[in-house]
Amino acid sequence: MKLKKPPLPIPILMMIGIVAISFSAIFIKWSAAPASIQGMYRLLFTSLLMLPFARTYSGAAFALRKKDWIMLVLSGTMLALHFLLWMGSLKYTSVASSTMIMALEPVFIMLGVYFLYKEKTAVSAILGLSIAIGGVVFIGWGDIGISADNLKGDLLSIGGTVAVAVHMLIGQKLVVRMPSYLYSLIVFLSAAGVFAIYNLIMGIAFFNYPANEWGIFLLLAVVPTVFGHILFNWLLQYVSATTVSMNILGEPVGASILAYLLLGEQLTALQWAGGLLVMFGLGVYLYAGRKKTIQLADAIQNAS
Fold first, then answer.
1. Any keyword rRNA-binding (predicted)?
2. What is the rounded distance in angstroms from the CA atom of residue 291 to the CA atom of residue 157?
3. Model confidence, pTM
4. What are 91-108's pLDDT values in tens digits?
5. Which residues of 74-95 are buried (b: 16+ CB within 10 A; e: fewer)?
6. How far is 238 from 261, CA to CA, in rounded Å?
7. Domain ranges of the chain
8. How far is 220 from 83, CA to CA, in rounded Å?
């Protein structure tokens, strides 16, 4: 299978996505609203921004099979669960610690594609992954702690990481049969609906929030979601889910730097060193795993 080429070089597009998602934790820390409200409006506002451009994809939407709709709703449910758990974790632990744990996503992705698509990872790619994860551990090492709050935050982040890995694996299979834009829109609407149901059941207020909170909800929709998640979903048609998820390893670096500048969270020399290791490991993985993209795309198409 011959892969299409994106309009801009993939490394540039990935860097834009990394910077965008690095702001996510900052905006969440600035908000006092419940995580489920932040997640709901983040996805709802993103969907509203996307709707004016959705008419082009109406034909593709009507062509979707019942199985596709079930998988889309499942993907949206996993995305909502990811946001609920990970955004909730930031209420209990630091940006560095929470994003460090979330950066373990490629481990779950790698296991998933092995069992689902029989994708084997080169030894050199595993080495790059190990270096990057080691760097992420350095970033969060000084902040994990052993308090009950920190432990709760760590467990929530782990749960959110598993959920987003499942979301990515479902997306990898779906975007080979439908436009990535349509995929993102339906999944975001599904996730917003899941959040709405959750908030109704839990009795969480929908509208009683000050103006600055609404501004944060909008920022969450535009910056990390449009220029982060939508961009990464779009990249799934050019590279594998494993490669896209590897870029999450760049988030602890960007988020930790922003947390230092904007929130006053201190970084140790070990954490700075970890940031360098993350970027080095990311480079090793992307170089070693570039040929696997074509192999995975063929495996997914054959399984469809």
1. no
2. 31
3. 0.79
4. 888 888 788 888 777 777
5. ebbbbbbbbbbbbbbbbbbbbb
6. 34
7. 10-303
8. 12
